[in-house]
Amino acid sequence: MLDLSTTEKIKAVDEQVSRWVLDLARETKTLRAHHHLAVSCKKGDKRNLVTDLDRENQRVLIEKIQSLDAEARFVCEEAGEAKAKSMAGQVWFVDPIDGTLNFVLEDRDYAIMVALYEDGKPILGFICDVPEGRLFHGGKQTGVYLDDQKLAAVADLGLEDTVVLVSGRRLVTGEKPYAAFAERARAFRVLGSAGISFTRLLTGSASAYLSKLSPWDLAAGRALAEGLSYQVKNLDGSSPDMLLSNTVLIATNEIHREISKMAKD
């Protein structure tokens, strides 16, 4: 188990994992340009793709993390790794390519994501916008950074003053409260990648994100968003279960108040 007893020790882990993620991102971008992708669908869903690079990236990240802690436990997107049975102790989350459909069809708007939690609390998150070569990293204790630039806490804007991000699939199927959420906002966007959506929140170009997210979709973004004063909650106001999929609203305090009022009306 890693020693995370001081901010300096957490920063050392941040620096090491940041280097690994950036190296892997550069390699992924190069391979995307020159490598013939082996693509398949998960469970027959033509929108839920997996490639050989997803699997290879996951293998590399797990191997690197195990070099820090041979007893590391994981929650990963791709099959083949022992899943943590609880959030007690330290748990690593790995999403080797987030936005695989974008990666395969458009070669844009995809990310590599890693997170470290201890006793259910986010310690560090890493989101690399691979095409742009940008790394968001850190957490509450260390501060949140875009590359080497420390980011400021977000402004507490309401829905009518900001752009929001939503799940396109749930918006078009009419699942509540996606349409009302999008209609109340100044504007809404659908990006097809949780990681890229989180980068919009972290840079302040959007102030809320509503979607059903798997643990590996949420973990890194939650660590970073909470470090910038966003609230990360289920629609009923409870905290997400990091071992299950959750319909989560990541948003300012004001937007959470508005959504809570909408639910009661």
Instruction: From the 3D structure, determine the CATH topology of the largest domain.
Output: Fructose-1,6-Bisphosphatase, Chain A, domain 1
Large-scale geometry: globular
Strand order of the largest sheet: 3-4-5-6-7-8-9
**What is the fourth-level CATH superfamily of the largest domain?**
Fructose-1,6-Bisphosphatase, subunit A, domain 1
Judged by helices, strands and strand pairing, the structural class is: alpha+beta
Residue runs with pLDDT of under 50 for 5 or more positions: none
Largest sheet: 7 strands, mixed
Instruction: State the end-to-end distance.
Output: 48 Å
The averaged pLDDT comes out at 92
What's the level 1 CATH class of the largest domain? Alpha Beta
The number of domains is: 2
Task: Produce a short descriptive summary.
This protein is 37% helix and 29% strand. The chain has helices at residues 7-34, 52-68, 100-105, 168-172, 178-184, 194-203, 215-227, 253-264; strands spanning 39-42, 45-51, 73-76, 90-98, 111-118, 121-129, 134-139, 143-146, 149-150, 163-166, 187-189, 208-213, 231-234, 246-251.
How would you sum up this structure, described in words?
There is one protein chain. The chain contains 8 helices and 14 strands. The protein is an alpha+beta fold and 265 residues long. The protein folds into 2 domains: 7-150, Fructose-1,6-Bisphosphatase, subunit A, domain 1 (Fructose-1,6-Bisphosphatase, Chain A, domain 1), CATH 3.30.540.10; 159-264, D-Maltodextrin-Binding Protein, domain 2 (3-Layer(aba) Sandwich), CATH 3.40.190. The strands form 3 sheets. Strands 3-4-5-6-7-8-9 form a 7-stranded mixed beta sheet, with helices on both faces. Strands 11-10-12-14-13 form a 5-stranded mixed beta sheet, sandwiched between helices. Strand 6 and strand 7 (134-139) form a beta hairpin. Helix 1 packs antiparallel against helix 2 (52-68) and helix 6 (194-203) packs parallel to helix 7. The protein is globular and about 50 Å long. It starts with 6 loop residues before the first helix and ends with a helix.
